[in-house]
């Protein structure tokens, strides 16, 4: 059974940094594309960053140059390093495993292609 557990969220001031972790079990991360998503109150869940099985990455325009996705296949753990945080980054952050889509569509980081969502970790950025 696939399980994902996010951690590392918290409250920071604008300009600060956080590193999110997503510990996985029940699957081998090296064989899957994985992603980070976020959802703010009253808004739809949006893709933030994705990484494929070869380590290629994709980012939403809103976080390019500030966020970095990475994974440790040996530890089955996904990371999201978030720098230069802004108040608009405030949201619940989730990790997930990609289970559908074409060979190229993973770059769109579309939630409809992902499953096995974790419980989320809250990130709050104050101005």
Task: Please specify the SSE layout and strand pairing.
Elements: E1 3-7, E2 10-13, E3 18-25, E4 34-39, E5 46-51, E6 57-59, E7 67-72, E8 77-82, E9 91-98, E10 114-115, E11 121-126
Parallel strand pairs: 2-11
Antiparallel strand pairs: 1-3, 3-8, 4-5, 4-9, 5-6, 7-8, 9-10, 9-11
Description:
By secondary structure, the protein is an all-beta fold. The protein has strands spanning 3-7, 10-13, 18-25, 34-39, 46-51, 57-59, 67-72, 77-82, 91-98, 114-115, 121-126. The strands form two sheets. Strands 2, 4, 5, 6, 9, 10 and 11 form a seven-stranded mixed sheet that branches. It has a four-stranded antiparallel sheet with strand order 1-3-8-7, with no helix packed on it. The radius of gyration is 13 Å and the shape is globular. 35% of the residues are buried.
Task: Briefly say what this structure is.
This protein is 0% helix and 47% strand.
